[in-house]
Amino acid sequence: MVIHVPIAHMAVARPPAKLRTTGLGSCVGVVLYDPWARVAGMAHIMLPQATEGREGPPAKFADTGIPELVRRIEEAGGVRRRLRAKIAGGANMFPQLSNDFFRIGEKNVLAVKAALQELRIPVEAEDVGGTVGRTIEFDPESGKLTVWTIRGEVAVF
């Protein structure tokens, strides 16, 4: 069974379920997992910060989504000190535009890494940046993250 995680959402799973999200352009897919408990969570982060006036579910923002994902993994039996992260996405989808506004992918990656660092969760693997969209799937059984690009490239982390 594959659980699809839509944009600005999150989900938690145990084997045999897998977690998948599609359409990662400037968004960042964040996977947190406890390899011992074999519980994992995935969030499809859309923006760096939940600032005043911005509304949406916690997973829409790195600064609110990652702590909430940790909480949900703990509820499912994961232990925070054992959590590991794998991240993908954060592409620059408008490379011809140098305006800082269009560098949201880079800002998302920095915000995700800052939130993980604050929670002392190490990033074990990443496939970030570039100019192509991605789809990711995580298998809590093996701990492997598969990344597909829109160019047809496949990588396993």
Automatic annotation (TrEMBL):
One of its GO terms (molecular function) is protein-glutamine glutaminase activity. The keyword Protease does not apply. GO terms for biological process: chemotaxis. It holds the Pfam family CheD. It catalyses: L-glutaminyl-[protein] + H2O = L-glutamyl-[protein] + NH4(+). SUPFAM superfamilies: CNF1/YfiH-like putative cysteine hydrolases. The keyword Hydrolase applies. Keywords: Chemotaxis, Hydrolase. Its EC number is 3.5.1.44. Probably deamidates glutamine residues to glutamate on methyl-accepting chemotaxis receptors (MCPs), playing an important role in chemotaxis. Belongs to the CheD family. This is Probable chemoreceptor glutamine deamidase CheD. It comes from Brockia lithotrophica.
